[in-house]
Design goal:
Elements (H helix, E strand, L loop, with lengths): L2 H6 L3 E5 L9 E6 L4 E6 L4 E2 L6 E10 L5 E3 L3 E4 L4 E5 L6 E16 L4 E12 L2
Antiparallel strand pairs: 1-2, 2-3, 3-8, 4-9, 5-6, 5-9, 7-8, 9-10
Length: 127
């Protein structure tokens, strides 16, 4: 990743905690350069590829996406199911001060159970 991308991309990390005693089950990272939302799940958990995951863009300033709704088929899953990546617009021009935000609904599973997360907010902005 170039230095400009690192400077321009403001990364928002959101750790989800199912309860006060339970460790974080995932991190969610949204970036402007590249324009993507990435979910990384904790050790022992995997992205639930059977769940109808949905990512929706609710706000876009300084960027114009061709689509604002993405589903589970749009997620690129890697790292043995521990990482899911939504590329929102790999060739979209992003203006200075751009901001994009939305919500994500998804599920993760381990060998014993699945957990469901609905309308998890995410935001990315460039300086």
């Amino acid at each position: 990743m170039s230095r400009i991308s690192l400077v321009c991309a403001l990364t928002l990390l959101v750790a989800a905690i199912a309860s006060a005693e339970e460790p974080a089950l995932y991190t969610l990272r949204a970036t402007v350069l590249p324009l993507e939302v990435v979910i990384s799940v904790a050790e022992g958990w995997k992205w639930n590829q059977e769940f109808p995951a949905k990512l929706v863009v609710e706000e876009q300033l300084g960027v114009s996406l061709p689509r604002i709704s993405f589903n589970r088929e749009d997620a690129s899953v890697s790292d043995g199911g521990r990482t899911a990546r939504f590329a929102l617009g790999p060739s979209v021009k992003v203006e200075k001060g751009a901001r994009i935000s939305g919500k994500l609904t998804f599920s993760i599973c381990n060998d014993k159970s699945c957990k469901f997360f609905r309308n998890v907010p995410w935001t990315a902005a460039s300086p």
